[in-house]
Design brief:
Elements lengths: L1 E4 L7 E4 L8 H14 L1 E4 L6 H8 L15 H4 L8 E4 L2 E2 L2 E2 L2 E2 L19 E8 L7 E5 H7 L2 H7 L3 E3 L27 E3 L1 E3 L6 E3 L8 E2 L4 H12 L8 E4 L6 E5 L3 E5 L9 E7 L4
Parallel strand pairs: 2-3, 4-7
Antiparallel strand pairs: 1-2, 3-16, 4-18, 5-6, 8-16, 8-18, 9-15, 9-17, 10-11, 10-14, 12-13
């Protein structure tokens, strides 16, 4: 197994000479260490079906249910595989086979609106468009370092609520409704400066801008503070772009990076499979 850091970025690396089905514990430990160090890993030319994807993802920890909105457990249990999400704009028999369509997705952290958000996300490319649909990643360690010292000091001890009602393209999730005041939005609250439980490194932790709210502040002060903080996110040198090829597998650390997707033509086909990993108990 070889690990080659991405050129021109402060994080991320390519991993080559790796077989997900046959890798032993020693090689996985090395891969896991590289993931903690670089936050984003890309494994190219991987022939991965759902069984392999689920088994490999499970080595990072217990798997999280796919985000179905307010679906009852009895409904979740009837799904073919509740741990694997289809992200696609493809329509079959008049029905979309996956979520998020072809539009642009905002910067976000996966499922940060729950009490214990996923540690890792894994995304595998089955079909990709010729143009568009790239995934951009930004370092939240870099974003924290970019904050003026006074602003960073203000954030320590503050928590922000992360909206659960909308997905990363701004659409309402199943069972939710729009609110006029972010304070009324559903979702979990998390420290705005997060200490990584495995590496001890601090990172800015924002989730998504839409309907976010800084706890304990009057709404205008919360809005102003969030707007100011977001100007330091995704600065040059702290962003890396994944231009997808079929059979790419990308693994990222939700605690230290955010990501967003570029739009692509509605006539093009994009089919991705995703898993997410829960924190260990």
């Amino acid at each position: 197994m070889q690990v080659q850091p991405f050129a021109g970025a402060s994080f991320g690396a390519d991993v080559t000479d790796i077989d997900l089905e046959t890798m032993g514990d020693e090689d996985f430990a090395a891969l896991h260490a590289a993931w903690l160090r670089y936050a984003v890993l890309r494994l190219r030319d991987q022939r991965v079906d759902d069984d392999i994807l689920q088994s490999f993802s499970g080595r990072f920890g217990p798997l999280e249910y796919a985000p179905f909105g307010r679906m009852r457990r009895s409904e979740v249990d009837k799904l073919p595989n509740p741990y694997i999400t289809t992200i696609s704009n493809i329509v079959r028999n008049g029905q979309p086979i996956g979520g998020l369509g072809n539009g642009e997705a905002a910067w976000h952290t996966d499922m940060s609106y729950i009490e214990r958000p996923p540690t890792a996300s894994l995304l595998y490319a089955v079909e990709v468009p010729e143009t568009g649909g790239d995934t951009h990643f930004c370092s939240m360690i870099g974003a924290l370092k970019a904050l003026p010292r006074e602003l960073e000091g203000r954030l320590r001890g503050l928590k922000a609520k992360h909206d659960a009602a909308h997905d990363s393209v701004g659409k309402l999730r199943r069972g939710h409704h729009d609110v006029d005041d972010p304070r009324d939005a559903p979702g979990a609250s998390h420290p705005m400066v997060l200490r990584h439980p495995e590496t001890g490194v601090n990172a800015l932790y924002l989730g998504r801008r839409q309907d976010a709210y800084v706890e304990g502040l009057p709404l205008p002060e919360s809005e102003a503070l969030l707007d100011e903080v977001w100007t330091h996110v995704a600065l040059p040198g702290d962003v890396w772009t994944q231009q997808w090829r079929e059979r790419d597998l990308v693994i990222w650390d939700n605690r230290t990076v955010m990501h967003r997707r570029a739009a692509f033509p509605p006539s093009a086909r994009r089919l991705m499979r995703r898993t997410q990993v829960r924190p260990r108990a």
